[in-house]
Amino acid sequence: MIWQTIPFIVGHYRTSAQAGQNGNAIFAGHVTSETLGNVFINLYKIGLGDEVEIQTNDTIFTYTVTRVKLVLPTDTSVMNPTPDATATLITCAGDWIPDQHQYSRRLIVTAKLMSAKSIK
Prior knowledge:
The chain has 120 residues and is mainly beta. It has strands at 11-12, 23-28, 51-55, 59-71, 85-97, 102-118. Strand 3 and strand 4 (59-71) form a beta hairpin.
């Protein structure tokens, strides 16, 4: 897998689990970009035990953050499948490397599913 992020929205990796399902549901968003958006600009403020809500058309899934870490851009192991319902949030972090047009690290937030609430 490679790092791909859709401009101006939080994107869901189609090959990952759906929100609420067993497995690793992977979501990515830009941190700061004039031309690509900044939907995860405050993701660095999240901490262990914080809640993350992911809303689909009919359900709000509440996850609890279990891990926050920085990885190298070459480390895609955070996208590996998981046996339980997990959400992984990914954005850029670290130093901007102008000649590579990318940041030096990726911020990874891992969260475990705690509850699901129907909204229909």
